[in-house]
Structure formats: structure tokens, C-alpha cells
Design a protein that fits this description.
Layout (H helix, E strand, L loop, with lengths): L1 H22 L1 E4 L1 H7 L1 H37 L6 H54 L4 E4 L13 H11 L7
Parallel strand pairs: 1-2
Helix pairs in contact: 2-3, 2-5, 3-4
């Protein structure tokens, strides 16, 4: 009988603890803020333009190299063997250069994208921290990690509004 009462008391304490914890848990969708904030929309436009420009430049270079390849192939029977081999060697060097340029451009683009997104996150972090303190939120979860959750616990729109009010523009280098 005594153990029964102890179990009931423990269950009561646990249920009170869990109900209090639920009130101090919120979730947020950072990706939504990154895509829909004013700064995020600006960044997405810049990234899209840079991506198109890089793709266009690489396609132009690729077409030039392909044209050169066709020209070399068409001259195979006309040129002397050593001249032909020299052209092939030059072509292979250009292909290597092209691949290096492509890798460098993609690497630079990815660094730019990541660093720019970090700027948004860095501007967002203090706002989230202040909001959590003001609202006495103890735990903040990422929305993608939640299977089920009450929409009342989602603070994404509130943070988005605060972020847009504080950071209309962010300079992306």
C-alpha cells in the first residue's frame, strides 16, 4: 500500500513537470525565415543571378572547347601526326584548365552562398535569443525535427516579423 502511494506521488510530480515544460517549448522553421524574409529574398535573388551567370560562362567555355575538339577531329587526316598530337595535347590542357575553372567557380559560389546565409543567421540569432528570454522559452526546436506539434507553439511568423522590422537589408559581399 505504501509503495502505491509513492508511485502516485511520483506520477503527480512527473505530470506537473511535463505540463510546465510544455509551456516553455517552442519551435521555429529557420529555412522558412531564410527564404521569406526580406534579406533572404534579396540573397536568393543574388544567388540565382550568380548561378545563372556562372552557368552561362561555363557553358560558353564548354562550347568553345567542344568546337575546338570537332575542328581537331576534322583535321586528323589532313595534319601531320606530330602536329595533330600537339593540337590534341593543347586541347587536353584546355580541358584541364576548364575543369579547374569550373571547380574554382563552383567552390567560390558555394563559399559565397554559405557565408551569406551565415550573415542572416548571425543577424537572426540575437533576435531569437531576446524573444526566448522575453517569452521565458526554455527549449527551442527546429520545425523539421518535429513530427507533431501544436501550431500555437510555432514562433516562426513572429520571428520573421521581428527580423524584417530590424533587418530590411543586409549587405552581402
Amino acid at each position: 500500500m505504501k509503495s502505491f502511494f509513492i508511485k502516485i506521488i511520483i506520477l503527480l510530480f512527473l505530470s506537473v513537470s511535463v505540463s510546465n515544460a510544455n509551456e516553455n517549448i517552442r519551435f521555429i522553421d529557420i529555412n522558412y525565415i531564410m527564404k521569406n524574409s526580406e534579406a533572404g529574398k534579396t540573397l536568393n535573388g543574388i544567388i540565382e543571378n550568380k548561378s545563372k551567370k556562372i552557368t552561362s560562362e561555363l557553358n560558353d567555355l564548354g562550347e568553345k572547347i567542344e568546337t575546338k575538339k570537332k575542328k581537331i577531329i576534322s583535321q586528323k587526316n589532313i595534319l601531320k601526326k606530330d602536329e595533330y598530337e600537339k593540337l590534341v595535347k593543347n586541347y587536353e590542357d584546355e580541358v584541364k584548365k576548364f575543369n579547374n575553372i569550373r571547380l574554382k567557380k563552383n567552390e567560390d559560389f558555394n563559399k559565397y552562398r554559405i557565408n551569406s546565409q551565415k550573415k542572416i543567421i548571425e543577424a537572426l540569432n540575437p533576435l531569437i535569443t531576446a524573444f526566448l528570454k522575453k517569452e521565458s522559452v526554455q527549449i527551442l526546436l527546429q520545425k523539421e525535427q518535429i513530427v507533431f506539434g501544436d501550431n500555437k507553439l510555432d514562433i516562426t511568423e513572429e520571428i520573421l516579423k521581428i527580423f524584417n522590422d530590424k533587418h530590411k537589408k543586409i549587405k552581402f559581399d
